Amino acid sequence: MTPRVPDSVPSNMSIRKVAVISVTARTFARAYTGLTVFNNEYEEMDIRSWKADQSIENRAKDILKDMGIASVDNDTSMDAFLAVNDPRGGYPDWGKAAQPALAYCAKHELDALIVLARSNVWDFLGETNQSFSGAGIYARGPVNNVSVLHLVAEAGVIDCQTGKALATRRLTTSSSDSMRDIISATPRMPSPMIEAMRPMAQWTDEQKTRYKGMLERVLSAPMEPTLRKLLGQP
């Protein structure tokens, strides 16, 4: 069995210079679950123009600066890291970060890379066997109504010497070690059910702008508790 990756880097490791790379929010999903499988709907749209990944990176850099850790600006395409978003398992495949990470580390003489990628979570809100992932809206009804805008992601610290993940942690507003607490603090905020049931082709520009702003607010809060836990700083 593969050993579980810890959620904090080893205490004897000094990390002073990093880069932050996010491939979490290239797309935005709308998932609606009705009473039967015939009522289930899922679609995605490209939101690279929202620059949510850049917002994630900038927020992380500000927090790292307060922690005394320097972070370099990204100067190349992040497409090489997209393979970490494993669509089959629904969770990041950190092994696919090794080669691009080693190349990036060598170029910038880094101690580590902090990579944020899409992840998957079970429907802890409605306590069903459904799941949702990445950035988007998850809704179910008309019984036990749930409708939230969410950001389900995971952060990994990649060692610049080996390319392996030193520590990984779900993006969460909780500082707890309990997985239940971590999952229940998945970044999210309420979203109108009536809009969640509306196909993306019918979304107005005003609605898209509002979702962009909601996502900005959702992604901001979990960065500090997640990074401090990852890097072993209280």
Write a brief caption for the model.
The protein is of the alpha/beta class. It is 26% helix and 28% strand.
Compile the SSE list and pairings:
Elements: E1 17-23, E2 27-33, E3 41-46, H1 52-66, E4 70-72, H2 98-108, E5 112-118, E6 120-122, E7 131-140, E8 146-159, E9 165-170, H3 179-184, E10 188-190, H4 193-196, H5 205-220, H6 223-230
Helix pairs in contact: 1-5
Keyword list:
ten-stranded mixed sheet, 26% helix, 234 residues, alpha/beta, 10 strands, single chain
Given helix and strand content, the structural type is alpha/beta
Could you estimate the helical fraction of the residues in percent?
25-40%
Rounded radius of gyration (Å): 18 Å
β-sheet strand percentage: 25-35%
> Spans with pLDDT under 50 lasting ≥5 residues?
none
Could you give a short account of the major beta sheet?
A: 10 strands, mixed
| Series of secondary-structure elements, N-terminal to C-terminal | EEEHEHEEEEEHEHHH
The total strand number stands at 10
The whole-number mean of residue pLDDT values reads 91
Note the quaternary state here. single chain
Shape descriptor: globular
For the terminal residues, how far apart are their CA atoms?
Answer: 31 Å
What is the count of helical runs? 6
Overall description:
The protein is 26% helix and 28% strand. It contains 6 helices and 10 strands. Strands 1, 2, 3, 4, 5, 6, 7, 8, 9 and 10 form a 10-stranded mixed beta sheet that branches. A hairpin with a 5-residue loop joins strand 8 and strand 9. Helix 1 runs parallel beside helix 5. The longest helix has 16 residues. The chain is globular and about 50 Å long. The model has no long low-confidence stretch (mean pLDDT 91).
